[in-house]
Design a protein that fits this description.
The protein has 8 helices and 3 strands. The chain has about 250 residues and is mainly alpha-helical. The chain has 2 domains: about 40 residues; about 180 residues, no CATH class. It has a 3-stranded antiparallel β-sheet. Strand 2 and strand 3 form a beta hairpin. Helix 5 packs across helix 6, helix 5 crosses helix 8 and helix 6 packs across helix 8. The longest helix has about 35 residues. The radius of gyration is 35 Å and the shape is globular.
């Protein structure tokens, strides 16, 4: 190639500051408007994505006091207990009265609380009478407690039903006066018992017992069984109701 001299580029003339401002001002204003819009958008989107992205961006809902939650649930259970004791005279529970799963699990979380509320008394009865027998048997035991509630010859609260007879030395439910600790040790079984207690108080359980007020384990037949009508067999239990409909 011939060694030719490259042309020298023309020198750029300096642009006056005033003229430069005319070119830059629209861009600056546009950028500011976009920045404001972006900020607003981020705020709106941030609210929408806060919950699903909790683990990623550290946005957390307000903490719920477990004690307060348990107390609220126990109050709801007391209302449901009263309605159940009223029998057919009570209306079905409203949506606000229904106990939810997460609510019932907040009650007696360690299985060591005093037996002084409907959920704990019912759940412990289900646990100690039918633990290991499967969900149908646990549901059937819960149904017997609820069938007794408010029935002639039985008390009007779950705890009183469960503890009935202790003063005479002959408990209706053997676990209550067998002299052994009443704390629930098996977390999984007790969680199931509380869930079944929730459904029983909500009146969401099917009555597998045929309206029974009594039951015993299949492997032993107590003398009182001859006085009642056999209504159902569920797992390892046999269920009965009075012949004339009255408790004896």
């Amino acid at each position: 190639m011939d060694d030719q001299k490259r042309p020298t580029p023309k020198e750029r003339r300096p642009v006056p500051r005033a003229a430069l401002g005319r070119f830059l001002q629209p861009s600056i204003e546009t950028g500011q408007r976009r920045s404001v819009l972006a900020t607003r958008l981020v705020r709106r989107v941030g609210i929408a994505v806060c919950v699903p992205l909790t683990a990623l961006i550290g946005c957390r809902p307000a903490a719920v006091d477990p004690v307060e939650n348990a107390n609220t649930t126990q109050s709801k259970a007391e209302i449901l207990e009263q309605n159940a004791a009223a029998g057919g005279r009570a209306a079905a529970p409203s949506a606000s009265q229904i106990i939810k799963t997460e609510e019932v699990q907040a009650v007696d979380p360690d299985g060591t609380e005093p037996l002084d509320d409907a959920i704990t008394c019912l759940a412990r009865t289900i646990y100690w009478e039918a633990r290991g027998e499967g969900a149908p048997a646990m549901e059937a035991v819960a149904t017997v407690v609820m069938n007794r509630l408010g029935h002639e010859g039985f008390p009007n609260t779950v705890c009183a039903v469960v503890m009935q007879g202790r003063e005479q030395g002959s408990c209706q439910f053997s676990w209550w006066c067998d002299g052994r600790p009443d704390d629930a040790k098996d977390d999984e079984s007790y969680a199931m018992a509380k869930e079944i207690a929730r459904e029983a108080l909500n009146r969401q359980l099917m009555d597998r017992t045929g309206g029974a007020l009594y039951f015993h384990q299949r492997r032993s037949v107590p003398p009182w069984a001859k006085k009642y009508i056999r209504t159902a067999d569920v797992a390892g239990f046999v269920f009965y109701k009075p012949r004339q409909g009255e408790a004896q």
